[in-house]
């Protein structure tokens, strides 16, 4: 499904309204960002991935389930409210709100990677390999509630799987500097927030997308159709947009679009 006009996005959101339930009120400072756990009707049956494929499932908010050909499962911004239907092997987390981290991660998770230094000293530093996936982080800053700066309170997590490089921006609050871009390296698939207020404003996020130049760009953290629609209306002259009917997508290096493309998965 391709986007030809902004109102097509609203039609798409309306079509999937029965798929995603309304979120509960948040205590984290973000409006309506605590959907009930396991409230997403995600497919349980899984087809085996080819050796060069990666499967992404948009669980909701800022959480994606990333699955590798070797069977490793990683969950981004793992938290106590929105969780994938399976226990991940790797869980990345960010500091900004309680819907981006967990106080009680499942003890069966092999690697729990907070995007901030739990000691309060400096930045988090992660570079771990589990099976066929390498996960590393690029620290960024976040705003505090009193208008200050929490240095290195967020991390962009990078997942290297075969020939693919996936980056999850987390709760990004500021434009990326040249040092961030060098640390990221080539990004094939970018998972990025579009709310425009609790994270980086939408104009700033557009500049981030232009700088990263990922072949696949998947929005998240948009709280509803109105915010998503406003963002996509600003992008339609820049990149083609594909609206998918399922929250699951399988990608490989060979199947990446020829030019940067926005792919919207149902959820919020």
Automatic annotation (TrEMBL):
This is L-ascorbate metabolism protein UlaG, beta-lactamase superfamily. It comes from the Bacteria. InterPro entries: RibonucZ/Hydroxyglut_hydro. Keywords: Signal. Gene3D superfamilies: Ribonuclease Z/Hydroxyacylglutathione hydrolase-like. Residues 1-26 form the signal peptide.
